[in-house]
Amino acid sequence: MTATLAPPSARPVPARKVPWGRYAGIAVVAVLLVVYPLVAKTSFLQTIGVTALTMAIASTGWNILGGYAGQISFGHAVFFGTGMYGTTLLVTGGWSPWLTMMPIALLAAVLGVLIGLPTFRLRGHYFSIATLAIGMMVMSILPNIQWLGATDGLSVPFLDEGFWNLTFSLRDKTEYYYTALGLFAVATVAAWLFLRGRIGSYLEAIRDDDVAASAVGVPVRRYKLYAVAMSAALTSIAGSFHVMFVTFVDPSSSSDLSLSTAIALIAVVGGAGSMWGPILGAWLVIALQEYTRTYLSATGRTIDLMMFGALIILVAVVDPRGLVNLVKRGYRRVRR
Amino acid sequence: MQDLLQALTNGAFLGAVFALAAVGLTLVFGVTNMLNFAHGDFIMVAMYAGFVCWSLAGIDPLIAIPIAALTLALVAVLVYAGIIRPVLGSTQLAQMVVTFGLLTFLRGAIQFAFTATPRRIEDPIVGGIRVVVGGVAVTGAQLVSAVGALVATGALAWFVYRTETGRALQAVGEDAAGASLMGINSGRMYGLTWALAGVSTGVAGALLINNFGIDPLAGATFGIMSFIAVALGGFGSVFGAALAGLLLGVVQGVVGLYLSGYTLTAALGIYLLVLVVRPQGLRGSR
Amino acid sequence: MTLLSVDGVTKRFGGLAAVSDVSFEVPEGTITGLIGPNGAGKSTLFSMIAGAQRPTAGRISFAGKDITGWQPHEAARAGVGRTFQLMRVFGSMTVLENLTTAAHLRHRTKASARAVAERVCAETNLGSYAHRPAATLTGATKKRLELARALATSPRLLLLDEVLSGLTPTETAEAISLIEQVHAQGITIVLVEHVMQVVMSLCPRLVVLDFGKLIFTGSPDDAVKDQAVLDAYLGA
């Protein structure tokens, strides 16, 4: 532009306040996560921790596409399953589990793009139903595929304990926990770096109004594809880790609709479109689920599903921005 | 050839129930612009309603149809008032996940009340009937469910397209603000739509228990079939959904004959294919 | 120099022609008013220039390039900025984030996009709203944000779709002065409006549509003497 056009009345943009609250929040959560296994010594509590962190990674992936770009997928179990099956197959072939993660994540990203190419023409509900159908389609095909173990599934071969083999003692799960924590930290930083600049702005613009986004120069389809690639890759890494923890994969443990639902709704409960969402949601949902399953459920009678369902309804009705927004509102009230 | 005819018949009879379920779903979408992901689970709840009638009072599923219909209408209205109305003005995310929460809740609640053990109605009235026409056998349960579903679908379609109230529903679906200017209470119409969807799932559930097992996940298949039928038929189109439901039943019947493990895959495959070629559905205009 | 040229552009929906065989040119650095009664095809024509709709026939060129049938984001990249008649701000973002998103079109890094956004924010007098979520703004401020957001893409041509309608007299005066400032920067403007007095005073050139057809191009003084224009607005 040539001339500037500040009118006489123009007021400069006030500087944004330093977000001390956010820094404090990060510090508190980081300390809690690191200290947890030192306090939580039972196998039960450690399993909650490992599972929550795994689901938080998967949800962080979902959050990029669903929370930031606003394309709500109910088929993310496909990518989680890609991680589980892919890592199992490669580890059986003699790979180190760590080395399987990146190539399998890349495969998941490609898969995500292939799914995205036809489905991103659909908007809103239509897109969500398509992802639901694709997820169910995969689930319906898996039991018929022999080289993936059909209905019996596949077992991860027995490996010696050690970091390189991502295999640790199951009696004390502290090592699994810290490995999961490390992966979660890496995934969160990766997601943050991915979303920090132009891509993040563009994805949020697409979520808010895709027509307006294209009018300010956002190539909408292309950015949705970026989002699904990153999203699928992160979710598959969660699957890769998970299969090393449970050492077994079958169609219902890898591609179930309820897994897709959990991946999506954990982020929603915690806060869709917020970096906080997955970790807050995962701990709340997984802890609730494991406690009710273990202590409140008589044979065959489960109330964990009921509680999870009620929690989702509550979040949707009370504040669709999730738990993190409740915390933020509480914090603001306290400061005032 | 005989086998194929039999498979086609079985499929068509099942498809009639899909059609009924799909009509309820498409109605809710057409009028309130919301997808009820728990729609299939309403059918599951209706199945349990029929089961309770049978096991506690010895009421046959045929006679339980109106009871199940009323129960589900009530459930649907309560759901609407309790959790749907509060999110009508909210974000799309909230609207989408709230019924997912409902789905999860209903499955959990039913499993809590009845455990996950599959249930079955022993000796329903229609159980002994078996008609053979030209070598193709039709059971009484199939006959009743197909006829019942077609009658109920026809009644719903008649209500929506031929009555004053039905036209008001359509008006609200097309333009809620405009309809309210014409003096139509859109909130009441939304409630009515949910009640109608409840009736359709109630009837479907009661019809199904004559020949289907009952368990907390029984609604999943019917739910996804309804969704596919609605998507194929063009969202909001009653006749489209009914036709697509029938079609899906036939496809399942025929595919089941040759590739028994792939019935669901085939139905989903058709949907995804249509999605790529014609995103607006087979009959939809947009 | 001609910046935008619309050549024989037609748009049919089904059998109906919303725009038929319209041709006109917009010289660089001018303000052109695109007017006509309701349903004359103004918004459809706008959409086609901005790439939101593809013409059934005809050619649109911008800065010497044929942009017919380009995607909206390609048109934006070429230098066509627009506002929407029904405001479409990014509701969950703050005003500054809205502008930063738009500025990213020509600025890859967050810092430089942010700097542009802050400058545009101050220039358009939105400074005091900078950190407010856009969804919470009043209608008039949203319209101002729409204009600011289009400016943040550093356009050569700005398409303004009824940015003045629904404003109070004070707001209208502010908006007009803003448009004049933007024009003074050298940005070419085409605006759709049916508030006639405003268009007359603001635009030295008018393009008049009626029932999808071009019925007049020229100065406002000539327009009020033109029989076809008078008929379109007053008669029949």
UniProtKB/TrEMBL annotation, chain A:
Keywords: Cell membrane, Membrane, Transmembrane, Transmembrane helix. It is a multi-pass membrane protein. The chain crosses the membrane at residues 20-38, 44-65, 77-95, 101-120, 127-149, 176-195, 225-249, 261-286, 298-318. Its main location: membrane. One of its GO terms (molecular function) is branched-chain amino acid transmembrane transporter activity. GO terms for cellular component: plasma membrane. It is found in: Cell membrane. This is Branched-chain amino acid transport system permease protein.
TrEMBL record, chain B:
GO terms for molecular function: transmembrane transporter activity. It is a multi-pass membrane protein. Its main location: membrane. GO terms for cellular component: plasma membrane. One of its GO terms (biological process) is amino acid transport. Keywords: Amino-acid transport, Cell membrane, Membrane, Transmembrane, Transmembrane helix, Transport. The keyword Oxidoreductase does not apply. It is found in: Cell membrane. Pfam families: BPD_transp_2. The chain crosses the membrane at residues 12-31, 37-56, 63-84, 96-116, 128-161, 189-210, 222-251, 257-277. Belongs to the binding-protein-dependent transport system permease family. LivHM subfamily. This is Branched-chain amino acid transport system permease protein. It comes from Actinophytocola algeriensis.
Automatic annotation (TrEMBL), chain C:
One of its GO terms (biological process) is D-alanine transmembrane transport. Keywords: ATP-binding, Nucleotide-binding, Transport. Gene3D superfamilies: P-loop containing nucleotide triphosphate hydrolases (3.40.50.300). Residues 4-236 form the ABC transporter domain. GO terms for cellular component: plasma membrane. GO terms for molecular function: ATP binding; ATP hydrolysis activity; L-isoleucine transmembrane transporter activity; L-phenylalanine transmembrane transporter activity; L-valine transmembrane transporter activity. Pfam families: ABC_tran. PROSITE patterns: ABC_TRANSPORTER_2 (PS50893). InterPro entries: AAA+_ATPase (IPR003593), ABC_AA/LPS_Transport (IPR051120), ABC_transporter-like_ATP-bd (IPR003439), P-loop_NTPase (IPR027417). This is Branched-chain amino acid transport system ATP-binding protein.
